[in-house]
Structures are given as structure tokens and as C-alpha cells.
Amino acid sequence: MSTTRILDGGMSRELLRLGAELKQPEWSALALINSPDIVRRVHQEFIAAGSEVITTNSYALVPFHIGEDRFQKEGAELIRLAGRLAREAADAATDRKVLVAGSLPPIFGSYEPQNFQPSRVQDYLEVLVENLGPFVDIWLGETLSLIAEAEAVREAVAASGKPFWISFTLADDEAAISGGEPKLRSEEKVEDAASWAASSGAEALLFNCSKPEVMQAAVETATRVFRKMDASIEIGVYANAFEGETGDAAANEGLHDTRSDLNDDAYSRYACSWADAGATIIGGCCGIGAAHIHRLKKTLLG
User: Fold this and answer.
1) What's phi and psi for 268, nearest 5 deg?
2) Most CB contacts within 10 A, which of 15, 48, 222, 288?
3) 272 among annotated binding-site residues
4) Rounded to the nearest 5°, which phi and psi values hold at 165?
């Protein structure tokens, strides 16, 4: 486990904890608009907790959250601000090198693969890539529900010269938790997503924003596919702490409740199982805070 890299955790609940106002539909973008210093503090707290990679707060900087008009008028400026805040926090770390991952979200909504528009996606991804580019070390296409979304990210960053990671969100209903074949929220198989990743040029395939109970099977599947294809790709996990079913809930309809049972100790036990299954990049998504990341580092790295 000594080679494990530690990511940060979920931005939104930490913003709330530190006093930022969050409301839908803007969600975490509202903190960039009204309280960017709190965004910087969240990055700093994750770094202090042990994160080796922090992610830009650009997830909600898409028309789905901030609206088409604001995206056209203010999107580029807000995206640059998100990149700059993360870069400054990473560069201020004195005990180790901290990388910045540029968050490239699902453009047309989380958990909503049916809304994907291939003819329009690059119009928005290009704005994110152009304005985050000066600040990031790695591209992170995250919470993607279908392989076509990942392919769009690959195309968008191809000319940047920077490595990219792809992270899919998984079906996490009762059937999946009970041992069903691991699938994306689009119902595409993790096996097929891993096969795509192996030939895509991605440096890492991750799984995020799903319940921790479904992550190990996905890691095992990806490990098997990569071995069969002789592909040298890292595998990562950053699960969420959402309660109940999330697959049918639109991302900007409200605030999901988080689980009371998923404390830092419980989450670190899941993380150990992911590492044992082959994951070498581990962090947290929604509801996983700095305390969880601190415990992860102690548990996985000593």
C-alpha cells in the first residue's frame, strides 16, 4: 500500500462546514462567486490532511448549474478563478509536491447520461480546458455516467499535452450492492469502460460518486481487464457518503443526506479493501471530508 496516492475529498460539504452559502442550482459555484477565500481554505485543509492531489472547484461551472447566460458572460473568469485558487494552495505546500487536477464534469448533468449531447459537448469542454489549462497538472473527467462522456473528455484535452484521468460513477442500487455485475449509471458494463480506458491513453481509471459498497467489484473488474490487455493504467476510487438511492435524482434538485455510519474509520476500512483489490489512487467524493482524508493517509501510508 506504500505506493497509494491520496486525493482530496468532497468540496461541497466542506464549504458548508466552513460557512459558505450553497444552494441549488449554482451549488459549489456559488462559493466561487461569493466566498472564494473559503474555497481556498478547503483546498488548504485537504492538503493539511494529507492530500497529494487536489481538484479544482470547477464541477458546477457548467450551464446545467449556473445557466447558459452566466456561463457565456462569467464562465471563463470563474473557471480561471477555480484553477488559480487550487494552484496557489498546492504551490504553498512546503512538505511535498501537491498536484492539481482540473475537474471536467458531466456537462449536461450528473447521473443523467440520457441528456448527453455529442454535438454540443465540446463547446463547453473547450472553455473549461482553455481556462483551467494554465493551472492544472492533470485533467480529471469525473462523475461520468457513460463511455461517450469519457471519449469527449479525451478529445477535449488531446492537444493540451497534459495527462488525463477518467472517473466513472457506478450504479449503486440494491442489485449492485448485492453483487450484480458492476455497471456505470448508463448500464454500460465496467468491463467495457475498462477496455475503452486501456486503449484511450488515460493514465488512470477511477470510480467516484457512488456508494463505497460497489467500488471493490469495479476495481477487481478493471484490474482483470488491464491484466488481460497488458495495460499499464492506475486504478482509483473516491466514493460518496450519500444516503439512499441517488441514480434517479437530478444533481441540482436538492441536497442529498449523508450517512451517519460512514465515519472516518469505516471509510478507511473500505479504502483498504480497494487498495487490496488494486487501487493505487484513493480519496473521497461528496460527504467525505478532511477528517476522512487524514485517516486515509494514516491507514494507507502509515
Assistant:
1) -65, -30
2) 222
3) no
4) -115, 150
Check if the beta carbon of residue 145 is closer than 8 Å to that of residue 184. Answer: yes
Please state whether the predicted TM-score (pTM) of the whole model is above 0.85.
Answer: yes
What is the distance between the terminal CA atoms of the chain, rounded to a whole angstrom? 9
Cβ–Cβ under 8 Å, residues 107 and 156: no
Query: Which spans in the chain are helix H?
Result: 11-17, 29-34, 36-49, 63-66, 68-91, 121-132, 147-157, 174-177, 190-198, 215-229, 264-277, 290-301
DSSP state of 23: -
Which positions ≥6 away from 126 have C-beta within 8 Å?
Answer: 156
Q: Is 209 annotated as a binding residue?
A: yes
| One pLDDT digit (tens) per residue for the chain, 302 residues | 448 999 999 999 999 999 999 888 999 999 999 999 999 999 999 999 999 999 999 999 999 999 999 999 999 999 999 999 999 999 999 999 999 999 999 999 999 999 999 999 999 999 999 999 999 999 999 999 999 999 999 999 999 999 999 999 999 999 999 999 999 999 999 999 999 999 999 999 999 999 999 999 999 999 999 999 999 999 999 999 998 655 445 545 556 688 989 999 999 999 999 999 999 999 999 999 999 999 999 999 98
Mapping DSSP to helix (H, G, I), strand (E, B) and coil, where does residue 132 land?
helix
Query: CB-based burial of residue 261 (10 Å sphere; 0-12 exposed, 13-18 middle, 19+ buried)?
Result: exposed
Report the C-alpha gap between 122 and 103 in whole angstroms: 15
Pairing relationship of beta strands 5-6 and 204-208 according to DSSP bridges: unpaired
